[in-house]
Design a protein that fits this description.
Layout lengths: L1 H16 L5 H17 L4 H23 L5 H6 L24 E4 L6 E6 L2 E6 L10 E8 L2 E6 L3
Antiparallel strand pairs: 1-2, 1-4, 2-3, 4-5
Helix pairs in contact: 1-2, 2-3
Length: about 150
Amino acid sequence: MIGLIVSGIILLLIEMMIPGFGIFGLTGLLLFLWGIYDWMGGGPMALITVTVLSVVGVLLLWWIVSIFPNTRLGERLTLRLQSTKEKGYASHPDPNRWLGKVGETKTVLRPAGTMIVEGTFLDVVTDGEFYEPGTEVKIISVTGGRIVVRATDR
């Protein structure tokens, strides 16, 4: 009976340290409850106790997930920061700001390559033309992360 309780606790600790699909956690919980049931003699009173412990555990878990984060202590312990675009966080700069800018190719564009605009290197493509390094190009369209360029008249 003590072995069941200890085994259940060990499996619960394994689930906490190495999250998985819940196999260790569920098995550990069942072994722990079975160990308590066996430790109490296995009668009707033990069954009632294990049932009450299970219900209290579910209610406690619900409280921790739903209500505790809104308490004064929960608000101090819960991370509320958000990395939003409005606060200046972005996975990449908005490529639309380059529309209409003129720059110079740094690599051969056949039809993809690199250009430099205002000191920034950009991955660009052409409409099918090939351009040598040093060619002056203008950004004519931006679709998502795809920047299309065309040679200027110079």
